[in-house]
Amino acid sequence: MTPTETCFHCALPVPANCKLTVDIEDEQRPVCCPGCKAVAELIRDTGMSRYYDLRDAPDPGVGRPPEDAAEWRVFDSAEMLEAFTQRDGDMCEATIYVGGMYCSACSWLIETTLGRQPGVSAAEVNPITHRLRLRFPGKDAHLSRHLATLAALGYQPQPMSPESTTRPEVAEQRTALKRLLVASLGMMQVMMFAVGLYAMDFQGIDADMQHFLRLVSFFVTTPVVFYAARPFFTSAWRGVVGRKPGMDLPVSIAVGSAYVASIYATFAKGEAVWFDSVTMFVFFLTLGRFLEMRARHRSIDRSAALSSLLPNTATRIDGDTHSVVPVSQLAAGNRVLIRAGEAIPADGILESGTSSVDEALLTGEARPQPKAAGDELSAGSINLDGMLEMTVTKTGGDTTLGTISRLSERARYARPAFVTLADRIASYIVIALLVVATAVATFWYFTDPGRAFVITLSVLVVTCPCALALATPAAFAAAGSRLSQLRLLVTNGNAIETLSRATLAMFDKTGTLTVGAPRIAAVFVVDNAFTERDCRIMAAALEHASTHPLARAFALQDPLPSVRSPNIVIGQGISGVIDGREWRIGNGEFVGGGAMADDSIATHVFLGVDGNVVAWFELEDELRPDARKTLDALRQLGLDLALVSGDNRVAVESVARTLGIDDAHHECTPEDKLAIIEAAQQAGERVVMIGDGINDAPVLAGADTSVAPAHGALLAQTSADVIMLGESLAPLTTAIEMSRKTMRIVRQNLAWAIVYNALALPLAAAGFVPPWLAAIGMSASSLVVVLNALRLNRFE
Amino acid sequence: MSILYVLIPLALLLLGAAVWAFFWAVGSGQFDDLDTPAVRVIMDDDSKPDEEDTP
Fold first, then answer.
1. Which of A345, A402, A485, B24 is most buried as measured by Cβ atoms within 10 A of its Cβ?
2. Is A286 a domain residue?
3. Closest to A10 (Cβ–Cβ): which among B26, B46, B53?
4. Is the pLDDT at A127 greater than 70, yes or no?
5. Are A730 and A749 within one domain?
6. Do A42 and B35 touch (CB under 8 A)?
7. How far is A1 from chain B (nearest CA, A)?
8. How is A36-57 classified by DSSP, letter by letter?
9. Cβ distance A412 to A302 under 8 Å?
10. Nearest to A182 among B19, B39, B44 (CB)
11. CA of B22, closest CA in chain A: separation in Å?
12. What percentage of chain A has pLDDT greater than the value 90?
């Protein structure tokens, strides 16, 4: 593995397991994904000559063999089109989740390729949510063709039902946009009339014209108050009913009373109107809410990513006939057939067949699990070698996978404890504010009744605790969105605060500090007729046929001898004929050496020929390439490091020595790990636990903050506060630096809000602040807070 | 000045038309994706110019 290899096309690092190359100018160039490969080839082909253009080159996917396209053909049936597309006159619109997209070249490729298909009027990819919006003619619609094209390009397309596409975020954003527009246009218009009114105040005014301008202002302000500002009124009312007045209450009182008083002044031909203040106040509030909402929405849609782990179709057995149906049509009690290499479409009980199943997704366990009739199978795990028949017990959201994805979804929407605290404090502030406003109103009513209303209005507007209430959530939302761009998902809002105060980072070993995939550590040659190199080549040739995770350890770049009649014996090993002799690789018994004492330190794999053991391999887990650098960076940040592992002393100590960790614990049960964490917490440390295994779930929950890599067990991720996407450990340092910066910004914001309110309140109460200035002051203070928070978006 | 009695209602009519057009655009999904259009301009630069020639 050469981690420095970058994609020839887009310069992103090439994933370790990616073997794609493209032949440009007689040289094999590495590329990172099928999209880049295809784009690079397209460029090369067009660059060489226009011959292919003139020949009317077939689009990728059109030449795909029909038997492969059959998988998608079910999506052409009327009921499938009904379920997965929305009709709009003659056109159909489908939303397709495209799995396997990595970079912007992918969206370019998808848009260009699909856009050239006959009849397709729109193909738009959102590279952030990985969703493709496709419009094509409804008459003899061939959804299957587009899906097959996507599949031929190397992606995993997944049509989404309309319910899952009309997500609540979209509806919320649409309404918010409309409200923002009404408020902004209304504000601009009313401002223009207000300029007229003020100018006329100085130059003397025609009473009819003044009345007319006031009427028009009233006319324009009305939709601003009743449409754009409606969320404030409803939220204020909810607060009153629930006896938890929020900051929307003074806002509503200010907007409502100024509006009513202005109407009265308009029709009673009074002194002044405040329509301009009303609209400006509503506009800035709406703008603040809109920015906050956008930041909140910008987290990657994990549920779609999870559901893409399920296959699109399943082979259902109805009596004697096999039919390919979409997974969404499976029901409990159905029997399904799962071929080798396919993902299991639903939870169920294995009826017949034996196989080993890769459950790494759910449990983090890299070794395949043997399954026999009567065993339970989980949706999303992969059938590695045998042909299975399964009775479905649970489908869709009821499966273990569905439950996990729901749990992680819920965790995302949970509000952090101290934001809730800030809200509670805000409600006390609101009550205090209303008391102050009443006192100010009473005072001025007896001193100068003519100014009482205007001053009270200014006090209400200027002291609106918006900035105070926005200070924390705005910073958190901005930090969350930036972190997700930096490949870190924050699932628990408290995590940012606890991370910023972490003093001790505790690591699990396997799969966290190490790659979790084995590597050949040593080769012991028993038969002197062969060199170590011969043994490695023979092993690589045999293992080439296998999908077993251990097989990857043997892969070699060299040319391999061909293996005749390879045979995979489940749970035993592989046999095959090379140069006329029968070679075997696998456990001792299978190879012919009899069972050998296999201690648990490392995995041993035996290689034999004609029933005699030739060599054995010791497989060991490899350290992550950037583990050392990351740990050094953490030390620089002032964190202590510790290692807790269930592994034996030798393995743990060797890793601890390599990485320079003094505090290493070996052979820990999850209870031991938890005890170690609690002891550290007793000693005043704030612990970040980084672990990936299913056994780590309680340990992760016990730490102050928990971090899990995304390739680990899903169950570990549901109890983790932060999930690191990608293979690297480096995001960990980013997370800690980012959390510290976020807390700094939160403190700045709170300080600013308090200073502003402390200055503005006395000035307004003394009558120095007219309502329009109050509206500007309050809005400006909120915008300062939001803009300060948005600085986090530029964090590197 | 009495021209204002005509011009202001006219402006309000135009305002109403603008709001209606925007509501329609939002409703038809044109504003659902506020992130991609900003990126899309850059996307073409990712690929070399000669591929623009492909029909």
1. A345
2. yes
3. B46
4. no
5. no
6. no
7. 27
8. HHHHHHHHHHHHH-SHHHHTTP
9. yes
10. B19
11. 8
12. 6
If we measure between CA atoms, which residue out of A218, A186, A214, A188 comes closest to residue A201?
A: A214
Determine whether the interchain pair B43/A177 forms a contact, defined as Cβ–Cβ distance below 8 Å.
no
Q: Of A297, A322, A338, which marks where a domain is finished? A: A297
Interface test with B, best of A130, A177, A218, A484 (most B CBs within 10 A): A177
Q: What residue in B sits closest to A115 (Cα-Cα)?
A: B55
Q: Give the mean model confidence (pLDDT) for residues A103-132.
A: 73
Listed by number, the residues of chain B in 2-41 with a beta carbon closer than 8 Å to a beta carbon of chain A are 4-5, 8, 11-12, 15, 18-19, 22-23, 26-27, 31-36, 39
Distance CA(A164)–CA(A231), nearest Å, equals: 25
Picking from B32, B33, B54, the nearest residue to A46 by CB comes out as B54
CB-based contact B36 A170, cutoff 8 Å? no
Top-ranked range on mean pLDDT: pick from A331-345, A391-405, A481-495: A331-345
Q: Are residue A171 and residue A228 in the same domain, yes or no?
A: yes
User: Are B36 and A127 an interchain contact pair (Cβ–Cβ within 8 Å)?
Assistant: yes
Distances (CA, A) of A577 to A580, A581, A583, A584: 6, 5, 6, 9
- Encode pLDDT of A563-608 as tens digits: 777 777 766 778 888 888 888 888 777 777 655 544 444 567 888 8
From the list A729, A232, A691, the residue with the least C-alpha distance to A469 is A232
**Where in A107-266 does DSSP place strands (E)?**
122-126, 131-137, 156-160
Question: Could you tell me if A211 and A96 lie in one domain?
Answer: no
Of A108, A173, A189, the CB nearest to B32: A173
B51 touches chain A (CB under 8 A): yes
Answer yes or no: is A43 within a domain.
yes
State whether A170 and B32 contact (CB < 8 Å).
Answer: yes
Higher pLDDT, A10 or B54: A10
Distance, in angstroms, between A217 CA and closest chain B CA? Answer: 11
For residue A254, what are its two tokens? 């200010």
Same domain? A497 vs A630: yes
Q: What is the set of active-site residues of A?
A: 508
**A172 and A291: one domain?**
yes
Q: What residues in B contact A104, CB-CB < 8 Å?
A: 39, 42-43, 46
Residue A582 lies in a domain: no
- List the CATH number of the domain containing A722: 3.40.50.1000
CA distance A356 to chain B (A): 42
Kind of pairing between the strands at A722-724 and A488-490: antiparallel
The total number of structural domains that make up chain A = 6
> Is the distance from CB of A283 to CB of A183 less than 8 angstroms?
yes
A230 and A220 in a single domain? The answer is yes
Alpha-carbon span A531 to A537, nearest angstrom = 10
Q: Does A470 score more than 50 pLDDT?
A: yes
Calculate how close chain B gets to A93, using CA atoms only, in Å. 12
**A223 pLDDT above the threshold of 90:** yes
**How confident is residue A653, by pLDDT bands cut at 50, 70 and 90?**
confident
> Are both A247 and A350 inside the same structural domain?
no
Q: Is residue A581 part of a domain?
A: no
In this prediction the ipTM stands at 0.81
Q: Number of C-alpha atoms within 13 angstroms, CB side, residue A597? A: 1
What is the domain extent for residue A320? 306-409
List the A347-352 sheet strands across, edge first: A321-326, A313-318, A335-338, A388-394, A347-352, A376-377
Q: How many CB pairs under 8 A join A and B?
A: 77
| Top-confidence residue, A209 or A601 | A209
Q: How far apart are CA A61 and CA A120, in angstroms?
A: 15
Ranges A137-151, A308-322, A399-413, A498-512: which has the least confidence? A399-413
pLDDT band at A221 (very low <50, low <70, confident <90, very high): very high
Mean pLDDT of A214-233: 93
Q: Which of A271, A297, A323 corresponds to the end of one domain?
A: A297
CA-nearest of A618, A715, A626, A731 to A670 is A715
Clarify whether residues A260 and A283 are in a common domain.
yes
